[in-house]
Automatic annotation (TrEMBL):
Keywords: ATP synthesis, Cell membrane, CF(1), Hydrogen ion transport, Ion transport, Membrane, Transport. It is a peripheral membrane protein. One of its GO terms (cellular component) is proton-transporting ATP synthase complex. InterPro entries: ATP_synth_OSCP/delta_N_sf, ATPase_OSCP/d_CS, ATPase_OSCP/dsu. The keyword Membrane applies. The keyword Ion transport applies. It is found in: Cell membrane; Membrane. Belongs to the ATPase delta chain family. This protein is part of the stalk that links CF(0) to CF(1). It either transmits conformational changes from CF(0) to CF(1) or is implicated in proton conduction. F(1)F(0) ATP synthase produces ATP from ADP in the presence of a proton or sodium gradient. F-type ATPases consist of two structural domains, F(1) containing the extramembraneous catalytic core and F(0) containing the membrane proton channel, linked together by a central stalk and a peripheral stalk. During catalysis, ATP synthesis in the catalytic domain of F(1) is coupled via a rotary mechanism of the central stalk subunits to proton translocation. It comes from Nocardioides ginsengisegetis. PANTHER family: ATP SYNTHASE DELTA CHAIN. GO terms for molecular function: proton-transporting ATP synthase activity, rotational mechanism. This is ATP synthase subunit delta.
Length: 269
């Protein structure tokens, strides 16, 4: 988000972090923020009233606090009320901000429980499963299936195998907020890394990397980028020797296949 919406989101993120550091239950807060985002998306009149720049901030805070106060926990209600009193570039940005803050809350809860690394890994693995399994992808995107049925399917696949926060987010991914389930999971992973002030490196390799190899690679990248780096490793048989790394828009291709292709281009040229 840019402009006033970006500034408002940053303020809310700080407030959310303070609340969770002070003992608020991040999982409960996250669920509440998701619920509020859904209501605002489904009710355009409320969304416009809550973001009307001509209305006093206190009146907007009172409006949404009155609506959500009996349904959400006190921290989520406070965050939503504060959000309504801030400025947004568009009415839709309020719901989008609450959605992102819901993810942040669950990540912070996982971090407090020592499960944040596992959450990021679980989200990535489930995202790969969705991409690689057409039947699963179709089942989770089938408009004839209810959202509840899709959530039940997700839970049946991940229960006992993934971190609690990852299961919650995987269930959230079928809500239709994002264009596809895979895109939702990818976005959640990015928010998780940003929340923890880390970069994410997508690593493609012809064989699985041992734990020690992953740690050494992460350490090298952390020194290079001056930030911790989380590795998402994909075993790709098309990779011939070496590694192919992508961090944001930057691609580092150290594979033999890449060097052979480069040599061929030079010969042809």
């Amino acid at each position: 988000m840019q402009g006033s919406s970006g500034e408002s989101l940053a303020r809310l993120s700080d407030a959310l972090g303070t609340a969770i550091d002070g003992g608020a239950d991040g999982a409960t807060v996250g669920d509440g923020l998701f619920a509020a985002a859904d209501v605002l998306r489904d009710q355009p009149a409320l969304r416009r009233a809550a973001t009307d720049p001509s209305s006093p901030a206190e009146a907007k805070r009172a409006l949404v606090s009155g609506i959500f106060g009996s349904h959400l926990d006190s921290t989520a209600t406070e965050i939503v009320g504060t959000a309504a009193g801030l400025r947004w570039a568009s009415s839709g940005d309020l719901a989008r901000a609450l959605e992102q803050l819901g993810v942040v809350a669950l990540v912070k809860a996982a971090d407090a429980a020592g499960e944040a690394d596992r959450l990021e890994d679980d989200l990535f693995r489930f995202g790969r499963a969705v991409v690689d399994n057409p039947e699963l992808r179709d089942a989770l995107s089938d408009p004839a299936r209810s959202a509840g049925d899709k959530r039940a399917l997700v839970r049946s696949l991940l229960e006992g195998k993934a971190a609690g926060g990852a299961i919650r987010l995987a269930e959230r991914s079928v809500s239709g907020v994002h264009l596809t389930v895979a895109r939702a999971l990818d976005e959640y992973g990015k928010v998780a890394a940003e929340t923890r002030n880390r970069l994410v490196a997508l690593v493609r390799t012809a064989r699985p990397l041992e734990a020690g190899e992953q740690q050494r690679l992460a350490d090298v990248l952390a020194r290079q980028y001056s930030r911790p780096v989380h590795l998402n490793v994909v075993v790709d048989q098309s990779v011939v020797g070496g590694l192919r790394l992508q961090i944001g828009d930057q691609v580092i291709d150290g594979t033999i296949a890449s060097r052979l292709d480069d040599a061929r281009r030079r010969l042809v040229g």
